[in-house]
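Troubleshooting entry. The earlier prediction with pyridoxal-5'-phosphate gave an output that would not parse, so I re-checked the input for stray whitespace and re-submitted. Clean input:
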Amino acid sequence: MSGAGRHTQLLHAGAPTLRDGAGPVNVPVVRTSTVRFATQQDLESRQHRRAAGERVASYGRHGLDTHQALEDALSTLEGGHRAFLAPSGLSAITLVLLALLSPGDHALVSDSVYAPVRRVDKTLLQRLGITVEYFSPAHDDLAALIRPETKLVYLESPSSLLFEVLDLPELAAVARERGVPVAVDNTWSGGWFQQPLRLGANISIQAATKYIAGHSDVMQGAVVVDSPALAERIAATHEALGLAIGADDAYLSLRGLRTLPLRLAQHQRNATEVAQWLQRHPQVGRVFYPALPDDPGHALWQRDFSGASGLVSFAFRDAGASAASAFVDALRWFAIGASWGGYESLALVAPPERLREHRTWQGNAPVVRLHVGLEDPQDLLADLDQAFHRTLT
Ligand SMILES: Cc1ncc(COP(=O)(O)O)c(C=O)c1O
């Protein structure tokens, strides 16, 4: 497929081969726990091939046709060597941390990271004798923070509350020069608007729960690596943790992937309209959306991304802490909900204690994060307008 455009590749990656000259467009949903073998020798040969690193299944946990088709499509999407599936975005993150870090190791993590990463650190990594240091890529010099025992740089760009865009090529070059692998949470871009492996990172992680599945009906994570050496390390930990997802969920993500670029383009159009409308609103102090020319991350976003997702945050201008919850309560089309990436609009009050963890955030105004869905934008604007009236007049 090399040489074909990205849309073409994404639509055809993982397609089933024809048998006797015919077959379905989509890969079947192959549900199984046990894999049957004709002979003991067939079983042993499969086990040996797997032990040698070949991606074949000798048991249902390894995933059969549906899983492999999704893995192929994800590798194509991210431009990687191999993909691994996990039961949630968070378990995909934990998989990477456990695969790359051992007792005594040190990891550098950007401070605007998805907050539950800090919980993995507190509840698991600290107990294993692994030290995590949070740094602000905007304020700190990564080169000066890397120690001999630093074994991972973990980033999220843009971050998922205020969308801080990191200079990924620069950070990855610094880490690579010192032999430290770089993992990036790429969920915001869906893997379509940004390809971290092409920008110098070694591992791209996504909560497939969000834009890949795209319909708020699947929990899933994906890890895509750039090399056979990293694939071997991730594979060993993946196997040890017994991570597995159901074939139905793998199918739903594969189906979601086929329309990912179209959905993202519409999310971007609607979100841009909402972000520009919010910028003009007298009760809004600041809008966070990297596609806006005055967003601090705009220049990096323009350089490294081909589009922007449906997430827009805003800070109130002159409002007390209770304004944010009154505002989201007043919304009609935006449901209150913690996830995003589905077709529908959502709103969430950004917890102030989370914002304070980001060194680039200096304010104390209440912040609301919107996920702008695929509804008619005029309905969304009218909804926001009535919510401002009901909250602040
Ligand atoms: C940026 C980011 N990464 C990872 C996750 C975790 O994904 P999941 O909810 O599938 O565990 C989320 C979930 O909100 C997220 O926003």
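This one parsed fine. Residues 88-90, 114, 156, 160, 185, 187, 207, 209, 219, 221, 339 surround pyridoxal-5'-phosphate (CB under 6 Å).
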